[in-house]
Task: structure prediction
Amino acid sequence: MKLYCLSGHPTLPCNVLKFKSTTIMLDCGLDMTSTLNFLPLPLVQSPRLSNLPGWSLKDGNVFLDKELKECSGHVFVDSVPEFCLPETELIDLSTVDVILISNYHCMMALPYITEHTGFTGTVYATEPTVQIGRLLMEELVNFTERVPKAQSASLWKNKDTQRLLPSPLKDAVEVSTWRRCYTMQEVNSALSKIQLVGYSQKIELFGAVQVTPLSSGYALGSSNWIIQSHYEKVSYVSGSSLLTTHPQPMDQASLKNSDVLVLTGLTQIPTANPDGMVGEFFSNLALTVRNGGNVLVPCYPSGVIYDLLECLYQYIDSAGLSSIPFYFISPVANSSLEFSQIFAEWLCHNKQTKVYLPEPPFPHAELIQTNKLKHYPSIHGDFSNDFRQPCVVFTGHPSLRFGDVVHFMELWGKSSLNTVIFTEPDFSYLEALAPYQPLAMKCIYCPIDTRLNFIQVSKLLKEVQPLHVVCPEQYTQPPPAQAHRMDLMIDCQPPPMSYRRAEVLALPFKRRYEKIEIMPELADSLVPMEMKPGVSLATVSAVLHTKDNKHALQPPPRPIQPTGGKKRKRVTDDIPDCKVLKPLLSGSIPVEQFVQTLEKHGFSDIKVEDTAKGHIVLLQEAETLIQIEEDSTHIICDNDEMLRVRLRDLVLKFLQKF
Amino acid sequence: MDPECAQLLPALCAALTDPRQPVADDTCLEKLLDWFKTLTEAGSSLQLLQDSPCLVELLLQVPKAPGLSPRVLAFSLRLAGLLAAQEDCFQFLQQGELLPGLFGEAGPLGGAAWTAPTVRSGWIQGLRSLAQHPSALHFLADLGALDTVVSLQGDSSLFVASAAGQLLAHLLGLSLRGQAEGSPGPQVCDWPASAQRIVGHIEESLCSPAAPRVTQALNVLTTTFGHCHQLWAQVLWARLSPLAACLLEKDPVPAAHSLVDLLLSAARSPALSSDRSRWETVAQALGRLSPAHAGPLALGLLTLQDCPQALSAQAFTVLLQPLACVLKAATQAPGPPGLPAGPEGDPAVADALLSSRSACVGLLCQTLAHLELLQPLPQRPAPWPQAPLLGAAVTVLRFCNGSAVPASGSDVGGRLCAILAGCVRVQRAALGFLGALSADTGPPELVTQVFAVLLDYLQSPDSSPTVLKKAFQATLRWLLSARTPPGCCDLDPPTQLLLRELLPVLQRRLCSPCWEVRDSGLEFLTQVVGCWAGQAGFRHALLASEVPQLAQQLLQDPESYVRASAVTAVGQLSSRGLPATPAGPEHPGGPQKSLLPELLHVLAADSEGFPRRAAMQVFTQWLRDGHAEVAEDTERFVARVLQAASRDLDWEVRAQGLELARVFLEQTLGQPGSRCPYAVAAPEAAAPGRVAQALRAACRVQLVEFAFRALFDYDRPVAQKSCDLLLFLRDQAAPWDSLQEARGSPDVASVEAALRRWRAGEQGQPLGPLEPEAVLAVLRSMDLEGLRGALAESSDHVERNPQSLLQDMLATVGILGDNEADCY
Result:
């Protein structure tokens, strides 16, 4: 059993598990932090961005000045943003049988895998994962396609050139494999390969293994997966949460008794408590708005925003913010808000019960109804008519490299009254802000990550007790910035096995058993004999039938009875199908008694030698040797068949036959 | 006993002994016992029995009546004990063989009723009351009661077990006190048999391998040393302390908690003051007990006045050890290195700290709480290690928020880091302790670190509301301790630096979605303004921030507690001349909005009581301080406030209204409100001219009508306060004879008529315009002293008298059918 690790990002995993005869890809996350090296794509021509000076080498060489621009001491690639794909060379991806998706953030690389690697298998995911994942992809495609950029920079990627660049470009990994965003056509084609599944549904893969999605409590439709055969169980834990937010709670019990637990997707901000961050978010929001400033919240169109809107609903009146407009701008804003209301069965119990009242499970419906929250596909069109300040804007993309957020950063960045509040933990906010410097607007970092923290993980591991834990190497040591925090790493016994990008792990357990079924008629014919109390044996003669990784013992074909003398016997009929069965023997030979028996039968001059495996009985006179071991007995005599048979019969007296 | 009760008592006694009657509840029987107790304390029990033969009958009947409720049984046992506490009465009851019937084999002892814990408890308490004189000892010996008491020490009911232990201690004391020939002998073998038996039993228990028995014996001894001041305690200690020392040799020490209690009891006992050996045992215990048990012992020793120097040094070291361990576990621990930690104790403390999360948290919280208790005491150890303690508190807080770096190679540090990260209990304890440490100064670099860590906590989004509250309190204490000496007009640089960072944090906290946080933020603001309003640096920083505006906005908060705190805060800001300027850049230097209408609106319209009470307090304070908005037109202000207060449904608001009225009267009468309440001379009456003026003003603002109405308020405190106010007014006007008596005038008649109607509950009737003369006449005609006396009686004084109790009990059993029970 092997694990091929195609991504080094602990929360955007992409691993391939070879288990029995199947090849299973676990998630295909897309590392978008590569986009931070690029200049933002403004929706409206930005004189500031287009007038940035080109970058030149120390020796004054300017051959890169078209591709690289300098802004406040940082160098950015002036090109369409590109993404860092999972490793494609480590394993032939056309051999992947299935892809299991655990949540919508972990499927963003799907089109790259399904469309360009010869992949012919099936993808499994829950319905909300697919629908919201589609929205995220649609938004991404929209953001990058609506601002076409003629130039595509490639010179800087040359290995020799890259070495000369300043950090972080110099240290960027695998830049040659970075790719531009996929197209909508590719998205549609990739999503068409998905088969929808429900929680706890058992899916057979080629009869060899069974996979089951379990609720993971992190996002709508998010799942952990169990991959098991009859005697082995692998659990795959991806983004999971034990907090009470909108999704169905995490199913922990089903993870018990795993041989291997692959643990990914823990919180990216282990020191921050989401509740405290939500409080911080609202304090800063209220403070800004009360002073007449605007608040910008760069976010994904789904996920934490639902919880934020819900808190907002409770807080808005008490904080005296009822007259402040809240805008949610995304090409998929409308779909996202509406989809969230129709996946009742995937929601937490509280929200499910609301549906029976009937009421919309999320209170953002009421915010929209009362015109407190307005949503628009983009800043063009209706929004520009309705726009009032001061206001609060939720919009993407959290990387600040594309999407409507770029426009608001340019618009509001110059005033210190305004505030940008980062809630998504995926991007470093300082790096995200780098191309906007110098910036007068206030920046607040309130990352809200509801995924498991290390305390919860250690409780979880104590509870489910897997034999082995496999996790990204980042989880086996404290974060570099807080090297003394020994509590911020996975602590379990035995210590976890760690992996890094492009590594192949041999998982530490051997398969020892295989299940074989016995057909009822064959089972009927068995005659068990009790060897000792509680243990019975029976001999079986059968044909082993193997198909689709399932093994069955079927009754042997009956010997064809001679059908009369007239027909000529065929040659094959002469050979009896079944020989007369020799009895099977069991038991052990007590050496002393055996020697006595030999003496009784006239053998003398008997010598017994102890060996490592048993005994040797030497009949010196007859020049014969009887070698008795635990599982075999040999009689060695020279061409005296009579003697051998006599001795054999004496040996057999001590053994049971059946 | 009054005749009415004497008349009711026989019927009640008969009812109690009748098993068919429903039994009165426990509280009634408890009250009845209380009554008998007051009777026996006031007079002769014998007389009581002779006057009320029904009581003797009751005590006779009870053991014989089958199927009697356990409560009545227990009541009778306790009553008998209470009566027999007086020796003559004891003899009287003995004559009738009544006591053995109740307490001996013939009674409930050993019978079916004995299974009820109430009965066992009653038996012990009865004996406890009874055992007051030597005859009682003989009685108990004849009865063989000691065995039963001893066995009851292990009773399944904790109350019974504890009472049995106390009875044993009491009996020991009594048997030694009862010695006719003066003090008991210097050897236990010279003591009376009963005392020897008890001591023997204690000795046996102390040597027992069963921990519960050891605990029982230790508890008896603790009680004994706690109460006994006689010399025989020395004999007892000399005999038993080796056994206690033996317990310390065991590992783990059994019944450590009780042992600590005993040692502290012995250490405090004046009877043992000349005995030096007890200090040796205590010193041994400090070294042997686990840190969790040694801590309380150390604290107890350090609070003693006469603890030997060496021992208190040892105790202090023990107390400090957990913190020393924490300091050692962190690199760059702030401050001068280390606390004095005994080298031999250190590993044990580290083990205790790391054994489990709960043990670590418990030990640290206990240590911090102990030190917080010790800090303000005059007998605290000197020199007080202020700097290391500050360092330790800061380090603990840093471990809790993950910013402490463990010492390299220190296993303890790594584990502490993992255990303490985010631990709210330890955070609260450490912040409390840090606040307490502000009473002493520290080296400047440490104070800077204290400010830094406090700021970290105030800023951190992860601080829970309770932690934040503690952080605010600690910050306030440190800020106050950093006050500049008089004569210096501004704050020192580190404080100014803190302030610069503190105000933005406060701003954010006032916008928190969590109401507890907003509330503690406002409380902090109020307090800090109260102390610092005079500092120019502070005023400047505050006015430059948005804090005053935010506080004013919180007057509209949905949470009533927050609104109340906001009212107090803006009231404070306004009286200190720090008003909120209009928010937003669009009104630079706009006209200042008056706060008075807003607060009046709160008083008139807020749906909850807390903000209205707060508004009344602010108004009263404003009136006292001569606030500018009040001084503009004081009469109009008072009239408006009193009008709103009089309609309020909350009695505290009305009572506060009377307080405000009093301040107003004092001011118009020309008396400084802050006159010393303990002044020897009676307050001088005001000059007649002023009185007339004041009365007229009081009538104009309808203060008099407000006070008269309040006199008949359904809430007693309001009526009392009003009575006091009117008395004050009347006394002030006492020498004012120059005015003609208005008695008999139509004005007076109408006031009196209105008062009568109000007394009858018709509060709707308004009182027309009043003349000072009429008011005075009415005041003089009223029996205000009498009214005050009536109001001083508690509202249930009628229900609490014994007659009412007896009637109620009889009504329950249906004997007094027509008595109307109090309906509540």
About this structure: Chain A has three domains: 2-270+465-506, 274-445, 585-657. Chain A has a mean pLDDT of 90. The longest strand of chain A covers residues 209-215.
